[in-house]
Amino acid sequence: LITGDIKAQTERVLENVKAILEDQKLTFANVVKSTVFLTNLADFAGMNEIYSKYFTSDFPARSTIQVAALPKGANVEIEVIAHF
């Protein structure tokens, strides 16, 4: 878990997702659905700025949900579904 603002946390989350995708020989283009969990919807713009650097075309369906808390004090969690 990385400390810092929402942009730094989102970058770390998406780098982790990228590593998992690459391990399966996939890219962000294979992602068909993502769910973003934020502890504060006021962080949406900052998260979206970083998110848009990873998803650049053929955007997957996305849901964004505000939650009361995330494990280990994180402010963002992103779950993806990818196809082969």
The global form is globular
The succession of helices and strands, N to C, reads: HEHEE
How is the largest sheet built, in terms of strand order? 2-1-3
Proportion in β-strands: 25-35%
**CATH homolog superfamily:** RutC-like
How far apart, in Å, are the first and last alpha carbons?
Answer: 28 Å
Low-confidence stretches: none
Mean pLDDT comes to: 97
Under CATH at level 1, the class stands as Alpha Beta
Percent of residues in helices = 25-40%
Largest sheet: 3 strands, mixed
Cα-based radius of gyration, to the nearest Å: 12 Å
Count of distinct strands: 3
Number of domains: 1
Any idea of the CATH topology? Answer: 60s Ribosomal Protein L30, Chain: A
Structural class determined from secondary elements: alpha+beta
Count every helix, treating DSSP H or I runs of 4 or more residues as helices.
2
Question: Per CATH, which architecture?
Answer: 2-Layer Sandwich
Quick structural gist:
This protein has 84 residues and is an alpha+beta fold. The chain has helices spanning 6-23, 44-54, and strands spanning 31-38, 61-66, 76-82. Helix 2 links the parallel strand 1 (31-38) and strand 2 (61-66).
Plain-language structure description:
This protein is α+β, with helices and mostly antiparallel strands and 84 residues long. It has one domain (6-82): RutC-like (60s Ribosomal Protein L30, Chain: A, 2-Layer Sandwich). It has 2 helices and 3 strands; from the N terminus they run αβαββ. It has a 3-stranded mixed sheet, covered by helices on one side. Strand 1 (31-38), helix 2 (44-54) and strand 2 form a beta-alpha-beta unit. Helix 1 packs parallel to helix 2 (44-54). The mean pLDDT is 97.
